[in-house]
Structure formats: structure tokens, C-alpha cells
Amino acid sequence: MQLKRIDIYGFKSFAERCTIVFPPGISAVVGPNGCGKSNIIDAIKWVMGEQSVKQLRGKSMGDVIFSGTDKKAAVNMAEVSLTLSGISEQAPASVSAYEEIMVTRRLYRSGESRYMINKQPCRLKDISDIFLRSGMGARSCAIIQQGNIGAITDATAEERRTFIEEAAGVMRYKTRRQEALVRVKSTRQNLDRINDILDEIGKQLEVLEQEAETARQYNARMDRLKYADMLISVYYYEQYERRINENRQLLQRLKEKDELNTESLEQLNTALQEIEARRTHEEKALSGLRNQKTDLQRSIDQTESRLQHLEDEQSRLTRELSQLQESLEKTRQKNQQIETEIRQAEEKAQSLESEIQELQSSLAQQESASDHDKQRLAELKQQLETHKKNQSRLSARQAKYNNVYSTALSNKEQIKRRLKQAEKEKNETADQIAELEETEADQQQRQDALNQEKTRLESEISSCRELLKEQSQQLHAQIKTVNELQQSRAQIKSQLGVLKRMESNFEWYKDGVRAIMQVRQTQAGQSGFDPTDCLDIVGNLIEPDPGYELAAEAALGEALQYIVVKAAESGIRAIDYLKHQNAGRSGFIFMESGGQNSENPGKNPDTTLHEHPKATRLQDHIRTRPGFEPVVHSLLSGVGVCDDLQTARSLLDPENGFRILVTKEGDLAGAPGLMIGGSKDRLAGILEKKQEIRQLEQNLAVTNQQLESAKGVQENLEKSVRGHENQLAGLTESSHKCQAKLVEVDKALYKTGESLRQARRRLEVATLEQQRLEGEKQDIGQELAEHDNILAEIDQQMGDLESGIRDTEAQIRELEEQIRVQQNARMDIKLNVTRRSAELENAQSTVARLKSFREESTNRISEIQQEMDHKQQQADKAGRQIEERQKQLKNHKQEMAGLQEDLRSRQSDYQSLVGRQKKTDATISGTQSELEEIRKKIHQIELDLSGLHINQENLVNRFLEKYADSFEQVRTVYRDQVLAADFSIEKAEKTRTDTREKINAMGEVNLGAIEAYESRKQRYDFLAGHRDDLMEALGDLENVIRKINRITRKLFLETFEAINRQFSGLFPRLFNGGAAWLELTEPDKPMETGVELMIHPPGKKVTRLSLLSGGEKALSAIAFIFSIFFLNPAAFCLLDEIDAPLDDVNVERFNELLKIIGENTQIIMISHNKKTMEFSDILFGVTMAGSGVSRVISVNVEQALQISKQNTHGNHNKGSDHAAALN
Predict the structure, then answer these.
(1) Is the pLDDT reported for residue 7 higher than 90?
(2) Which residue, 416, 417, 420, 418, is CA-closest to 428?
(3) What 3-state DSSP class applies to 749?
(4) CB 327: neighbour CB atoms within 10 A?
(5) What are phi and psi of 493, to 5 degrees?
(6) Which end of the chain has the smaller Cβ count within 10 Å, N or C?
(7) 3-state DSSP assignment of residue 134
(8) Is residue 99 part of a domain?
(9) Which domain holds residue 633?
């Protein structure tokens, strides 16, 4: 194994991460004092497992962590890693497969430490094992710290032995031997403890065996009682089961009938729903047909009214066209006539112009007025004609609207009657809905109440079951507690009985004491010996305070077994009795001896006791039976008690007044120079036994109280469980009744809901019908209002026309009268002039009038033609509309006939459906009544079944509470037996009663005795087997130790001889003469002997190694260490300034040997010697700058020397070659 590299971080002065690669051969670490060279050696030792802070030159392990400087902050951890190569085959299997391994140790400032191999966490033992198997270790001779080279010669012979043992490779065997010795010691201690336990258990087994037999009898009777209980329970269970089966059969028949009725009822309901659906459909269809008929009738009426209007309009237009045509013809004829007359008048006027000129001035005014009046008269006549035409048209229109208005009034009255009927049906349906809603609300409220009641009952049932379960568990636990207390009480009674029997038989006392006290009990004295003179034993007269039993037993010693007698003569007679009976020996103390000190208090030794803070009178801690104080006082006079034996020795001074001092542990000190003590475990005195009896009596009293209390709690729990069982049965029955009521309410609520839905549908239909009729009424009202407005307008127009006609006719008559008057006046004027003038004027007047007529006639012809064209268009349009309305009216009448036929058919189907619905309702009502009766019977049977099941459950629960067995299995086993004809329930119950009385007569029985006996017996057997195993293991360990000793002895002696030969030859080589050898201090004890160095430098005879100089000591130690290296080369060697005491000559000799060793061992040494530096293969320089942090630089010595020579000859550049020498 080779040390390849070390990585240091935070260890001592290496605050920064530093890596040093060690090549094979000799490496020297150099540097000024205090730069941290030795810290490298410490780091290697630390990671190898060194646990001694002193060896690491510190006071605490935290000192290895860099603590900081003025310029560098402290770090929180120290970590060192060693990279090792060339792992030997002897290494542990976990690392032997690796060519290289990295061993790491890390320490945090918090104190937490970690060990790792290849960066995986491991134990310190794993790391130590790696180095130990390769012959290395933190304390190996291959690691020599600064100043320790001379310590090898100054070491003891035993310490030098370890170097040879390490070289011999026996350190592993020593470790195993030490582990085996520890195990041997532990095994022997275990054997002692097991033997003590076996003795104690053996005594207990004798008592437990008797109690176990009683318990077995008790268990046999309990088994008989359990057998009778099982038969009785199975019998009543089967009776319940028989009744359950009968009820189930009846329930099955009723349920089958219920299913048939339910199925029939569902079919009837389905049929009823279908009938209702069809009825609703027929109602909707009838309503639709009626609405359709009404709409169609309204359309027919409207069409007929419109057709009549169109025909009237067409007739009027035809008449008007005819009249216009006649008027046109007349106007044309008149126009032709006027044209003729105009020509004649003009001719006559031309001839009469001369005649007219004279009369023109007088006639001009009359002619002008006459023309105006005539024109006005023509206009009035035309206006009168127009009024008459309009009056005729309005008359026809008025007649038409009067007919429509009469029809609308008739329809309105009919709708009012239907609205009244619909309102009545709606109100009746609304009242029915209100009643049904009120009924539904009541039923819903009752349903909610029943649901709440059901929920409450279910909650109470659940709570009751949980509480019953909880209390049943508590009852089981309490029964278990009572049984445990009974077992505990029986165990205490057993132990107390054993101790009391031993006390009553005086088994704790000597034979002589036992013989006297037994005679005293029987009152059978002999040879003048009166046993009544023996009052009692001293041990029975005192009761130490708790904790002072051992002190009292130590102070009294044998006096505890002294018998107190009335007088000395009584003691003598008792002794004679013992001699005569050959019954042993006994001590006696008579009452008079105890009273002597009491009569003279001034001589009482206790009066001389001084109060002392470390000791008190033992008598102050002991209670004495009244009347026997002098005896106890005489025995304990001058006896004190203190904390420990050392204090007792210091207080044994006459001035303190103590003649004897004892401790609570039972140690005793008395003058002169008397001490008694030892292990308190072995003390089992009389007072302790009595204290144990008192403690057991107290425990028994406490246990009795606890048992009575526990039984009271058990009784209360049993009462509570029975009460909750009854409460659960009542709640269950109430829940079933509530469920039955809830079913009835659900049915009623369903019926009410169905009735309510049907009533709401009827109300909806009535409302829709009412809305439709209201719409029709509103439409008719609007139509009547429109007709009223139209008729009023027509009446107003007719009145206006009649008034206009009358006014026009009056104006015409007045104007005609005026024209006649004017004509008479003209005639008078014409008569007053010449006839010619009159004729001329007449001619001129005629020409003008004819021209005016001609113009009017022409205009009139144009107007008549335009009006005729317009009237013709209206007449044509009216004809077309009449044809369309006639076709529409014919279609409506045909459709009305089909609707009336459909309506009659639908009405017949609807009446048939109503009849079927009534019949189905009656059938459903009868089926429901029968179904309710069946379900009442079913419910009653279910209640009976529930009660029977509850009885069964209670029976099973009581059985489980008693025996915790599977009732089904018990039932399977005993069912045939209880169903047999010869089975008698009375006999079984009598057997149970008799057995229970016998069990009660047995009194208290320690049921745990069997288990305790078996347990103790098993434990005894187990411990006995364990004892045998330990003895076998002890033999194996002793064989292993003997084998290790044999191997170790052989390896040690062989290695010692080999090292001695090397040392004898190497010493003269280093000293250039002289002699040296090794000697064993105890050759006959090679396992314990030490090793002495016998040193004789040249020319000297040294009797002691301490007389050697420092250099001689160093060379002697080097010779010894190198002798070991030659025999068993180490993997690597760490030497810290071991050449410091040597001069130059000895350094050269040292280096020569070191070179030889370096061929097989990797050497890392710290040195200030120049020759050693030159001798090394590589130098590692350690420096420390002002920051207080160590740094390392390496130099290859051979390369550096070659570069130096080359630089001298100037062959190479100095800077680059110098850099090549640096790693």
C-alpha cells in the first residue's frame, strides 16, 4: 500500500485547500520553524484514526480546525483525505477490489464528525481496520513525531513490546483476545445472574404448583358451567330461530301477495295514467276543435260580411256607371243641340248687331246678373246630385255595419256566458288546489316531522349502539381488570402466605431458636422448662424505618435471633432444654439485663453521644414493641448510623460516643479496627423479610380496595349495558313504527300530489280557455268599438248630407225665384225699348248662354268619362274580390262541416274515457285498501322478527361477554344435541345452578397460578437452557482465547528473535562498533513479558539507557526502528525531525540506511538537515506568509540539480528550466 496523495482543508494552519502528491521513494518536507510542516504528519495521523488530542498537540479536538488570523477568517470544518494505492489482499473485502481508495475524515466546529471511504460514509473502525491489516496505525512505529525518537529508549519494557507486536502482526489477535475476554466476563456475570434467578424461581414453583392444581379444578368446573351455558344458550337460540323461520315463512307469503297486489296496482295505475293521458289528449283535441270551429265561424261571418259589402259596392258602382252613361249621352246630345243653336244665334246676332247695340247698355247689367245666377243655379244642382249619391252610398254602408254589429253583439253575449262558466270552473279548481295544497303542506309537515323523528331515532340508535359498544368494551376491559386484580391479589396472597408460613415456622432462624419458639407455640414444656417464659424473638420486637433494615441487621447481627426471656433462670432452663433435645443453639436476653441501664440513666452510653451532622442514633430510626424498650436499648446503645463506611471510620472516636457505626447499605465499623461489609444484593435478612410481609399486606389491602372498586364499576357497567340494550330495543321499535307511519304519509302525500297535479292541469286548461275567451271578447269589443265609431261616423255623415241637401234645395228654389224675377224685369225693359233691341239683346243673350252651356257640357263630358273609368276599375276589383270571397266561403263551410263531424266523434270518445277512468279509480281504491292491510300485517311480523333478532343478539352478546367464543361454532357443535327429543332444558339449568354453587364455594382462586406456574416453569427451563448455552459459549470463548494466545506467543517469539538479529547487526553499523541486543524481562511469560534494549556503544559499558547522550539515544532508537522495518517493511513511514540530534557523520550513516529502507517503503520525513535534503528524491517546501496560512511547493531534487548544471554551461534558458523543475 502506498500513500499517493493527501488533500488538506481547514486543518490547523492549512486554511486553504492544499493537495500534496507523494511519489514513491523518499520525500522531504522542509521549511522554517512554525510554518506548519509537522501539521502534515498530524493530518495523516488524524485521518488514520488518531483520537488522542494530546498526540495531535492540542487540548480539544476543535483545535485542529483553522481558527483564523488577523487577515484570514476562521473556517467551520477541517477535512483531510488520503488517497491510497496498491491495496493489499489482506485489506477488508469492501475495499480490496479497488486499485485506489480515498479515506476522508471531516470535523465540524459543532463537534459533528464524519468518516468516509471513497466519499461514502463509514465507521472509524472500518478505517482503522484498513490500516491495521496492512501493519499500520496511528500509533505505529512507522510514524515518529517530532521529539519522540528518544522516547523509544526511554519507554518502558512493556511499551517497547508493542513495537514488536505490531511488527509481528499480532495487534489483530490482541484486539480479538480483548474482545473475547470482555465477552467472557460478561458471560460469567450473566451466569451468576441466571443462577440467582433460577434459585428464586425454584422456590416460587413449589408454591405455584399447589395453587395451579386448585386453579385446574376451578377451570374444570368452569368448563362444566360453560358447557351448560352453551347448551342453554343454543337451546333458546334455536327456539328463537324456529319462531323466526315461522314468521319469515308467513312474511314471505304476505310479501308475495303484496307483490302481486303491488304489481296489479301498478298495472291499474299505468292503465289509469294512460286513460288520463288519453283523456287529457282528448280534452286538448276537443278544445282545439272548438277553438278551430269558433275561428272558422268567425272567418265565415267575416267572409260573408265582406262578400255582402263587395256585392253592394258592385251594385252601387253598376248603377252609378249606368247613370253616368245616361248623363254622358244626354250631355253630348245637349252639346250638339247647343252647337246648332249657337250657329243659329250667331247668324241672327250678326243680323241684329246693329239692333242690339242700342239696347246693350241697358241690358248688360241684367245679363251679367242673369248669367251669374244661372251659373250658381247649375252648381247648386250639381251639388245636390252629389249629396244624394253620397247619401245612397252611406245608407248601404250603414245597413252592412248594422248587420255585423248585431252578429258581434250576439257572439259577445255567448262569450260572456262561456267566460262565466270558465271562471266558475277556475274558481272551483283553485279552491280544490288550495285545499290540496293545504293538505299537501300538512302531509309534508307531518312527513318532515316523521323524517326528523326518524333521523333523531336513528341518531339515538347510532349513539346508543356506539355507547353500548363503548360500554361493552369498557365492561370487557373492566372484567379483564377485575380478573387481573384477582390474579394479582391471589399472587400477593400466595407470596404473603409463603412468607407468613415461613415466618410462623421460624424458617429464617437457627435450629435452636426454631425449637424454642415451636415449643412455645405448642405450650409443651419439659424438665422444668416453661416455654411461656420465652417472650419473643428480638427481630419480632422492632420495626426499622424504611431503608434502615440493613443498618439494623448489621448492628444487631446475631442478636436479631436472640430470644427475650423473663429472667436469667428462664434462659438457663431453655439452654438446658436445647442441650437435652440436641436441638441446636440459641441466644437469650432477659428483661432484667435490659432494665439495668434504664434504672441508671447517668450510665447510659447514649447520653455521651454528641450531636453530629453526619451521624445519628440508630435507635431513633427503630420502633419498638411497647414494654421491650430496655432490651432494644441495651442492644443498640452506642450504635450510630451514617452515610458511608469512610464517614463511619472517621467518627469512631470516644469523644463522639459511638462504639459502632453502621451504614444504610449494611456496612459496619467498630473499634478496634473492625469493619464488616460487602455486596448488599446477597443480604436477605430477617428484617427485610418482615418489611416485605408488611409491604405485601399493604399491597393486599390496596389491591382489595381496588378490586372492590373495580367490581363496583363492573356492576355499574353491566347495569348500564343492560339499560342501553333495553333502550336500544325501545328505540328500534319506535324507529320501525315511525318508518311505518312515514310509509303511510308518503302514500298519502303521493296521492295528494297526483290530485294536485291533475287539479293544476285543469286550472291551467281553464286559465288558457279563459284567456282565449278574454282574447275573443277583447277582439269582439274592439270590433264593436270600431263598428260604433264607423256607425257614428256614418250617422254624422248622413246628418250632414241631409242638412246639405235641404240647404241646397232651398238655395235652388230661392235662386230660381230670383232668376224668374230678373227675367220679368228684363222683359219689362225689352218691352220699354224697341222690339229690335229686345230681339238683339235676346239673340246676344242666347249666344252667350249657349256658349256657356257648350263649355260646361264639354267639361262635364270629360268629368263623366274620368269618373266612369274610375268606377269601372272599382267594379272590376270588386268582382274579383267577390269571386275570391265566394271560393273562401265555400271552403270554410266545407271545413266547418268536417270539424262538426270530428267534434261529435271526439265528444263520444271523451265520454267513453271518463267512464273507464271512474271504473279504474274504483278498482285502484279497493286494491290499495287490501294492500294496506297486508302491509300492516307485514310490518307487525317484521316488528316481531326484529324483537326475536334482538333477543338472539342479546343472547349472543351475553354469551360473547362471558366466553368470547364464536357462537356459530358453538351452535354448530351443540345444535343437534339440544334439538334431540331426550334433551331437557330443566336438567341443563339445574346442572348450571349446581356447578355455579360449587364454584362459589371454592372461594378465592388464583386463576393466574396455572399460567404463572407454566410461565415460571418455561422461564426456569429457558434459563436453565440459557445457562447451559452460556456455559458452552464460555468454553468456546476460552478455547478461542487459548488459540489466540498460542498464535500470539508463537508470532511474538519468532518476530522477537528476528528483530533481535537485525538489531544486533544494525547497531554496530550505525555506531561504527559496539554491541546491542534485546532481552525479555520475563522469558517464562512470553504473553506478559517486556522488552529491554541492551546498548553498549563502542568503548563504553552503559548500565542504564538514561546515561546515553541524546545522539546515542536517537541512533539506538533508529537502529531499533530500522530493525523492525528490515523485517516487516511498512507501507509508508512518517519521520518528523528524527535526524535532529545527529551530527553530520551519523546523518550520513542514517541516510545510507534510509536509502536501503526506501527501496521497499515510501518515506516521508521532515528535516532541517541539508544532507538529508540533498539525499531526498523530492522536496516539499512549506511556507507561511503574513496571513498565517501554510502553503506547499514541491521541487524534484534530481531535475533541479540537472537544471543547475545546465544553467552553468548556458545551454538552456534559466527561467523555463527552473519552471520545469517545479510541480
Answers:
(1) yes
(2) 420
(3) helix
(4) 17
(5) -60, -40
(6) C
(7) coil
(8) yes
(9) 529-589+611-683
Q: How far apart are CA 1131 and CA 411, in angstroms?
A: 134
d(CA 142, CA 1132): 7
Read off the C-alpha cell for 642: 451514617
SS3 call for 1104: coil
Report which DSSP code applies to 45. Answer: H
The CATH number linked to 73 is: 3.40.50.300
Q: What is the mean pLDDT of residues 1112-1135?
A: 80
User: Is 678 among the domain residues?
Assistant: yes
Q: How confident is the model over 888-901, as a mean pLDDT?
A: 82
Classify strands 2-9 and 18-21 as parallel, antiparallel or unpaired: antiparallel
* Grid cell locating 891: 271552403
Beta bridge partner(s), residue 1078: 1093
Annotated binding site for ATP: 32-39
Q: What's the whole-number mean pLDDT along residues 575-601? A: 69
Distances (CA, A) of 80 to 132, 1045, 1157, 1164: 19, 37, 27, 17
What's the pLDDT tens digit per position in 989-1022?
888 888 888 888 877 777 777 777 787 778 788 8
Q: Give the model's confidence band at 1200: pLDDT under 50 very low, under 70 low, under 90 confident, else very high.
A: low
Q: Give the C-alpha separation, 921 to 929, whole Å.
A: 12
Indicate if the pLDDT at residue 111 is higher than 70: yes
Is 320 among the domain residues?
no
Instruction: Give the pLDDT score at 272.
Output: 79
- pLDDT single digits (tens) 839-863: 666 676 777 777 777 787 788 788 8
Name the burial class of residue 1198, with classes exposed (0-12), middle (13-18) and buried (19+) by CB atoms within 10 angstroms of its CB. Answer: exposed
**To the nearest whole percent, how much of the chain has pLDDT over 70?**
88
Grid coordinates representing 340 are: 246648332
Would you list which residues are annotated within the binding site?
A: 32-39
pLDDT band at 638 (very low <50, low <70, confident <90, very high): confident
Angle at 998 between CA 997 and CA 1000, to 5 degrees: 65
Which residue(s) pair with 915 in the sheet?
A: none
Model-level pTM?
Answer: 0.38
Q: Is the dihedral of CA 966, 969, 974, 979 positive or negative?
A: positive
Do residues 14 and 1189 lie in contact, with contact meaning Cβ atoms separated by under 8 Å?
yes
Structural contact between residues 925 and 265, judged by C-beta atoms closer than 8 angstroms: no
Span of 25-34, 345-354, 703-712 with lowest mean pLDDT:
345-354
The 3-state DSSP class for residue 524 equals coil
Non-local (6+) Cβ contacts of 664 within 8 A are 547, 548, 550, 551, 641, 643
- The residue among 648, 667, 683 that closes a domain is 683
Q: Which residues of 857-874 are buried (b: 16+ CB within 10 A; e: fewer)?
A: beebbeebeeebeebeee
CA distance 368 to 871: 38
Beta bridge partners of 616: 641
Contact 12, 66 (CB under 8 A): yes
Mean pLDDT of the region 399-417: 77
Q: Tell me, what CATH number does 635's domain have?
A: 1.20.1060
* Alpha-carbon span 127 to 123, nearest angstrom: 7
DSSP element (H, E) containing 564: strand 563-565
**Please, which residues bridge with residue 563 across strands?**
537, 588
Q: In this structure, which amino acid lies at residue 314?
A: Q
- The number of beta carbons lying within 10 Å of the beta carbon of residue 970 is 21
Residue 292 neighbours by CB distance under 10 Å: 15
Residue 121 belongs to a domain: yes
Cell of 1034: 464460555
**What is the DSSP secondary-structure string of 626-669?**
TT-HHHHHHHHTTEEEES-HHHHHHH--TTTT-SEEEETTS-EE
Q: Of all residues in the chain, what percent are helix, strand and coil, respectively (each to 5)?
A: 75, 10, 15
Averaged pLDDT, 385-392: 79
Three-state DSSP class for 1189? Answer: coil
Q: How many domains does one find in the chain?
A: 2
Domain end (from 655, 683, 711)? 683
Please determine, for residue 838, whether its predicted confidence score (pLDDT) is greater than 60.
no
Q: To 5 degrees, how large is the angle CA 554–CA 560–CA 566?
A: 145
